[in-house]
Amino acid sequence: MCWGLFWAGVSWAHFLVLLPERDLIGAERRAVNLEIFFTHPMEGGPVMPLERPQKVGVFVRGKEYDLTPLLKVYQRPVYEPWRHETSDKKVPAWRLFYECTRPGDHVFYVVPEPYFEPAEGVFIQQITKVIVNAFGAETGWDAYLGLPIEIVPLVRPYGLWEGNLFCGRVLKDGKPLPGAEIEVEFLNDGSVRGVSGPFVTQVLKTDQEGEFCYTIPWAGWWGFAVLSEGKTLSKDGQEYPLELDAVIWLRAYPRPVRE
After folding, report:
1. φ/ψ bin of 217: left (φ > 0), alpha (ψ from -120 to 50), beta (otherwise)
2. Angstrom distance (rounded) from CA 188 to CA 90
3. Which residue in 43, 163, 164, 199 is deepest, having the highest Cβ count within 10 Å?
4. Which residues contact 68 (CB under 8 A, 6 or more apart)?
5. Average pLDDT in the 181-189 region?
6. Contact criterion met (CB below 8 Å) for 48 and 194
7. If DSSP codes are grouped into helix, strand and coil, which group holds residue 161?
8. Are 243 and 227 in contact (CB under 8 A)?
9. 157 contact partners, CB below 8 Å, separation of at least 6
10. How many helices (DSSP H) and strands (DSSP E) are in the chain?
11. Dist CA 247 CA 156 (whole Å)
């Protein structure tokens, strides 16, 4: 397997964030809160208004559960607090509360409504996944859900240290997607400042098997967005292209101190 890695030439990459408060669930606390919002993660915003998603679900041990009825809207600040922006504007985002009752990997996913980006003249739809492990049973993290486009992990996407290599395979309509561009960004919690230009977004491409790898440089949540083309959509009597993307989020932990 071979892959390419190079720095992105532009910033302002869009990422749909599907963020659980924890990616490892134990018996002491079974519930998990998940937030869904559309933003520029490394730069702490701006967050864009998000319509109610078409569908939210979870796969557990080969079974799918529809979580769409659990969605609750909330108002999210346009910028993260660490940005110290003067704007007090807020936009719609979504959250849900889910209680894990079955051991195993919980593959959460969201299918959003396409978002129209007027600056680019394009619709963006990012089908997004995140994997949460419950009660230590490692079953299902590499499951293919059959989504229109998705990233299937080749490396277990939890229990990762900073510096670990993450690999995945991109499938579109069930087939490997070669030569696809992948954008990678850190969900900035304010710990990384002064990043600009090509350092905001990392960019790599899939190989002929639709596979890619990336070494996670530091701890925190990381998003991987695969860019592809979809059908055209109409708005105000005009046709616009659809950017149909797959996103996966994973968390890396600080390396332990060796004694």
Report:
1. alpha
2. 19
3. 43
4. 53, 55, 56, 57
5. 97
6. no
7. strand
8. yes
9. 131, 141, 166, 248, 250
10. 0, 22
11. 16
